[in-house]
């Protein structure tokens, strides 16, 4: 006959051992926690998981039910709703010009993406590296870190986008030599000279991919009396956008609302028109890059002449932008192999060495 007390003790002991086993497996003294690199972009959110690479790339869009503030969709599903929602559903971008415009919605968006990756457990939270423009204020830095923490992050590191983009583009910024990067994202264009792992001089301006799209919308409205949506303008930018040597024989058919009649209408725009639409904004990037070069110490300037300027970010894909920058700056301009992924890839590289280089 089994002694009830002994059975009870053995049963609890077994349960305790099982719990300890899963605790060690799951927690591992915190060493088993995931490391996430997040490119919190105005246009897209990319997440790199240490050891796995980029595992998520979705638009920074959240669809909200305005009647009760419930989240209807996030990411790609929400992006499909832009310009196509009824009055009670609003598709919003919670980030503007590279910083958080709506903290609560940004937190919900990050939480959704982190939960989607299933990287949290009962005993550990992921370590996160997240990026920000170089001109971000201390208050904005704090809000970005808090958003990542509230979304489920443990330890959160904040890094500047051009530094991380340079690492993701394959530049060794930790040597005593000058490296220059121009990172053109959705909300900001960040230009920086780096040496020995830090920013020597930089500029951040709020003309980038989104403002290019807005400029195209404004041009079409002014010159063709047609109101086109954000997605149509973005498609024009991708298909026939150009910074230099545009061909007026390359065209795009765009549909919208005629300002005069209020009726649907289709017009044709050409590459030369879009170059004109983007001209003033692109010159802002050129002028900012000149300003950074003027503030760069001579020895580092010599390195940049030898090594060239690295162009990263989705906005850098604008046709012939590299040629225009090279002509205006009189310095070689190189395009990284994966401009859209540079920041996310850079976070992954830095996270791989996070224990070795605590300064990250």
Automatic annotation (TrEMBL):
**Protein's UniProt name:** Cell shape-determining protein MreB
Q: Where does ATP bind?
A: 42-44, 186-188, 234-237, 314-317
Summary of subunit composition and partner proteins = Forms polymers.
**Out of the domains of life, which is the source?**
Bacteria
Q: Which UniProt keywords apply?
A: ATP-binding, Cell shape, Cytoplasm, Membrane, Nucleotide-binding, Transmembrane, Transmembrane helix
Q: Which HAMAP family match?
A: MreB
- Entry's Gene Ontology cellular component terms: cytoplasm
Q: Which Pfam families match?
A: MreB_Mbl
Gene name as annotated: mreB
Q: Membrane-crossing residues?
A: 6-25
Q: Where in or outside the cell?
A: Cytoplasm
């Amino acid at each position: 006959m089994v002694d009830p007390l002994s059975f009870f003790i053995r049963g609890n002991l077994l349960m305790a051992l099982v719990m300890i086993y899963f605790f060690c497996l799951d927690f591992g003294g915190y060493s088993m926690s995931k490391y996430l690199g997040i490119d919190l972009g105005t246009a897209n959110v990319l997440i790199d998981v240490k050891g796995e690479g980029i595992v998520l790339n979705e638009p920074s869009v959240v669809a909200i039910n305005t009647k009760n503030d419930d989240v209807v969709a996030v990411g790609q599903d929400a992006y499909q709703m832009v310009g196509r929602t009824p009055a009670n559903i609003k598709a919003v971008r919670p980030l503007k010009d590279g910083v958080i415009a709506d903290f609560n919605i940004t937190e919900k968006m990050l939480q959704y993406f982190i939960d989607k990756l299933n990287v949290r457990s009962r005993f550990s939270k992921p370590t996160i590296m997240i990026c920000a423009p170089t001109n971000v204020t201390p208050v904005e830095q704090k809000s970005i870190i808090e958003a990542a923490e509230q979304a489920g992050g443990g330890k959160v590191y904040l890094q500047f986008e051009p530094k991380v983009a340079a690492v993701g583009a394959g530049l060794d910024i930790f040597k005593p030599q000058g490296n220059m990067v121009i990172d053109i994202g959705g909300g900001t264009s960040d230009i920086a000279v780096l040496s020995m792992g830090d920013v020597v001089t930089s500029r951040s301006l709020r003309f980038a991919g989104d403002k290019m799209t807005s400029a195209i919308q404004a041009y079409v409205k002014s010159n063709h009396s047609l109101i086109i949506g954000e997605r149509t303008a973005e498609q024009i930018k991708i298909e026939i956008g150009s910074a230099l040597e545009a061909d007026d024989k390359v065209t795009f058919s765009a549909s919208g609302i005629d300002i005069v009649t209020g009726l649907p209408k289709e017009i044709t725009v050409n590459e030369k028109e879009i170059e004109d639409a983007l001209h003033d904004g692109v010159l802002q990037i050129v002028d900012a890059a000149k300003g950074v070069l003027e503030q760069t110490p001579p020895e580092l300037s010599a390195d940049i002449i030898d090594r060239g300027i690295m162009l990263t970010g989705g906005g850098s894909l604008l046709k012939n932008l590299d040629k225009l920058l090279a002509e205006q700056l009189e310095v070689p301009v190189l395009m990284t192999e994966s401009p859209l992924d540079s920041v996310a890839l850079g976070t992954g590289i830095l996270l791989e060495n996070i224990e070795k280089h605590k300064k990250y």
